[in-house]
Design a protein that fits this description.
mainly alpha; 15 helices; coiled coil; cell membrane; RNA-binding; about 600 residues; HD/PDEase_dom; single chain; nuclease
């Protein structure tokens, strides 16, 4: 019996006891009333009415208790019905469980039987496969055995052949030994005859020497001394003539060989034409963008210049602004910052700082990637990370319009080709040529020439002394002492002096040519001046009656010195003074 049934039964019993007590009390009260005399007192009547009311209330309470009992009985009956239904469901569940268990057992027996059959089939297959594999292995072993037997037979045949050859060789050696013994005996006899003959010749030579001394009146030592002195003088003269011929031949051959090496190195290097510009120009989508760049009362342009360190020039040029800065990397960061701001459209001081940080990181990444690409192209490894950073900054540095990083790559290739032709250390010379302009990355930050700055940097970051000397000597600020320094100078001149390597405006080019001709034409005795090879050579024709040979040399030196002092030009300019003397006679 469930707990609910127990509680319900207890409640019914309590209500029954209360009702019975109330009925008993009411019956006793009615008896007393019926036995007592009818009073006429109002108090008695009131008490009687009250008791009757109490009796009615007790009766209603009894009725309510009976109804409650009936409800409780119905609830108990429902509970009993639910309990019976639950018992029936539990019985059905147990029956279903027994059925499922029986089915599972039957299925398990079926699966087990099928597994046994599958295992027997697999075992049969494995036995068959093992039998076949054993047969194959037996066949392989039989074939191997046959091959080994054949090999043994071949080896036995070779051993027999070698034994036969060995026997023949022993017989031949024995025959040769007999021949050598006979030859030794003959040589001993001949040696004895030669000794006797040498003794006879020595005696004859001694007699002849004595006769010569008697006839010439000189001893052998004095004659030998005179002979040695005469031969030594003649040898010296012949040696001097030979040295002169060798030196002349070496000069002509060396000059021709050097031309061949330089021309071959230049031909084998394919470089780009100059396409760099020294001015950063940013094109705008419209002129109204200039006002947004300037901002209210110029606050945007002031914020841009203070954050980036780049001067922004906004003039009447349609849809374009100029950026000016001595530091090419900073100028590129400023250009990229302004480009991002124009594309974004939001231009205010806080936004300028955010975009500047993004542009700076992007330019640093581009520089580092460009330096790594250049190192890979040249084939240089194991270089200090700070040098890699400085090389990346040269991506935005130009020299007479030529990109410095591309110039370093081109110089390294040319130097490597020349070193290979001369059978020198190619990696070291390529490293010298590639790092020779590393100082240009700091020329706007450190005082001094880029050659000395680059040498200090290379020495600071662990480069060898050959590399350091080649860097500091490539502009003759330090006299070159090694072949690496000389080849670095030559490859630098080839890269900077090739056609199309460096660019200058047409106006500056024409003015430079005119000024070169004016300088030469202003000297005394000059008749004609010709500027040749794009201004790299000038030929000065002088009057022979006014300028002699010494004056021509002085004139060439004065013209070259004045050109060095007044003009700025890449590479070098050759000054050639031509003095021609003509003598004319008439035959009658």
């Amino acid at each position: 019996m469930r707990g609910f049934d127990v509680v319900l039964l207890v409640v019914v019993l309590i209500l029954t006891v209360v009702v019975v007590g109330a009925v008993v009390f009411g019956v006793r009260t009615l008896r007393r009333i019926s036995l007592a005399p009818a009073p006429e007192d109002p108090a008695f009547i009131a008490e009687k009415d009250r008791q009757e009311q109490s009796l009615a209330a007790l009766r209603s309470a009894a009725d309510e208790a009976n109804s409650t009992i009936d409800v409780a009985k119905s609830a108990a009956a429902a509970a009993r019905a639910e309990a019976a239904a639950a018992k029936a469901e539990a019985k059905a569940a147990r029956a279903e469980a027994r059925r499922v268990l029986d089915d599972a057992r039957a299925e398990a027996d079926t699966v087990l039987e099928r597994a046994h059959r599958q295992a027997e089939a697999d075992a049969e297959q494995l036995r068959t496969a093992a039998r076949r594999s054993g047969e194959r292995e037996v066949a392989v072993l039989a074939a191997t055995t046959r091959e080994q037997a054949a090999e043994v037979e071949r080896r036995a045949a070779r051993m027999d052949e070698r034994e036969r050859l060995h026997t023949e060789e022993v017989e031949r050696l024995a025959e040769r030994e007999r021949q050598l013994t006979a030859a030794s005996a003959a040589l001993a006899a001949r040696e004895a005859a030669l000794v006797e003959r040498e003794q006879a010749l020595a005696e004859v030579e001694e007699q002849r020497r004595r006769e010569l001394e008697r006839v010439a009146g000189l001893t052998a030592e004095v004659a030998r001394t005179e002979l040695v002195e005469s031969i030594e003088g003649q040898a010296k003269r012949e040696a001097a003539l030979l040295v002169r011929d060798i030196e002349a031949d070496a000069r002509s051959t060396a000059e021709q060989r050097a031309r061949h090496i330089v021309v071959d190195a230049i031909q084998r290097v394919a470089s780009e034409q100059t396409a760099e510009s020294v001015v950063s120009v940013l094109h705008l989508p419209g002129d109204e963008m200039k006002g947004r760049i300037i901002g209210r009362e110029g606050r945007n342009i002031r914020a841009f210049e203070s954050v980036t360190g780049v001067n922004l020039i906004i003039d009447d040029t349609p849809e374009a602004v100029l950026l000016s800065c001595f530091d090419p990397v900073r100028r590129e960061v400023g250009r990229l910052t302004l480009e991002k701001l124009v594309l974004d459209g939001r231009i205010h001081p806080h936004r300028i700082e955010e975009v500047y940080d993004l542009a700076r990181h992007e330019v640093e990444e581009l520089c580092h990637r460009a330096a790594e690409d250049a190192l890979v192209e040249v084939g240089i490894t194991e270089i200090h990370p700070e040098l890699v950073t400085l090389l990346g900054r040269l991506r935005y540095r130009t020299s007479y319009g030529q990109n410095v990083l591309k110039h370093l790559v081109e110089t390294a290739h040319i130097a490597g080709i020349m070193a290979a032709e001369l059978r020198l250390d190619v990696p070291t010379i390529k490293r010298c040529a590639f790092l020779h302009d590393i100082g240009k990355a700091l020329t706007h930050e450190v005082e001094g020439s880029h050659a000395i700055i680059g040498a200090d940097l290379a020495r600071k970051y662990g480069e060898s002394e050959d590399v350091v000397h080649a860097i500091e000597a490539h502009h003759n600020e330090v006299p070159p002492q090694t072949i690496e320094a000389v080849l670095t100078q030559a490859s630098d001149a080839c890269s900077g002096g090739r056609p199309g390597a460096r660019r200058e405006s047409l106006e500056a080019y024409v003015k430079r040519l005119e000024r070169i001709e004016e300088i030469a034409a202003g000297k005394l005795g000059v008749e004609k001046v010709f500027a040749m090879q794009a201004g790299r050579e000038i030929r000065v024709m002088v009057k022979p009656e006014d300028v002699d040979d010494i004056g021509a040399a002085v004139l060439a030196r004065d013209v070259a010195k004045q050109i060095e002092e007044e003009l700025t030009y890449p590479g070098q300019i050759r000054v050639t003074v031509v003095r021609e003397s003509r003598v004319t006679e008439i035959a009658r």
